[in-house]
Write the structure tokens for this entry.
Amino acid sequence: MQIYICVKHVPDSAAHITILDKNHIDENISFLLNPYDEHAVTEAVKIKNNHPGAEVIAVCLGKNDAEKTIRSAMAMGADRGVLITSDKVHDSIVTALALKTGIEQDGTPGLIFTGKESIDAEGMQTLFRIGALFDFPVATNVVKLDIEQDKAVVDCELSGGVANTYEMSLPCIIGAGRGLNTPRYPTFPDVVKSKKKPVKKISFADLNIKVPLTGMHIVELEPLKQSRLPKEIKGDADIVAKEIVRILKQEAKVI
């Protein structure tokens, strides 16, 4: 069985992002493997270890520098990688087309993993678009996965800690959530071995994708501005507590 993991090369969440020319960011910062994809890689390797002969392939659409993210996935246990190179930022429609085409040209997927979302765009669309293109069932925010012969049984976490259980035929798309596992972080020998594993590079242009005329593109980027208005609450403890609850419910709307 060939198990594919669609991974993304994303800015480190701790990095200071500087916007250039209104629709680009300064990329002289640290990039890494999308954190949700770490759970996807860990689960894919776990399944491979339980299925002799299985192979794990990390697939990424990105610039040449994204090879580092594929190497990170291979250090965590992926066997090889496929990097679709492009200097452009693509929306989820084109990204899904590229990943689907790259996977098809490489082999026959028995199972496809992604993270439930990326920490940069947070669109949560790509895995569903890949599923639609392949006509595979899709489950996201998966926190438990069992492979039983020709089907997958998954628990998908909803809001409030509630989870629904679904049964899907294979092949299917699994969007890994944080509760699925504890990521297996590589040791130094794992990192050294990953540098010897093969990464096949394919130019986006060589995929011969017919890019849809309709799509999304970045018009302008703006830094997030948070306005905070301090407010003094006076009175005894009961009055203060009631006012805090009122603010949280009616103004902040967080409870």
Remarks:
- The chain has a mean pLDDT of 91.
- Residues 52 and 233 are 64 Å apart (CA to CA).
- The two ends are 46 Å apart (CA to CA).
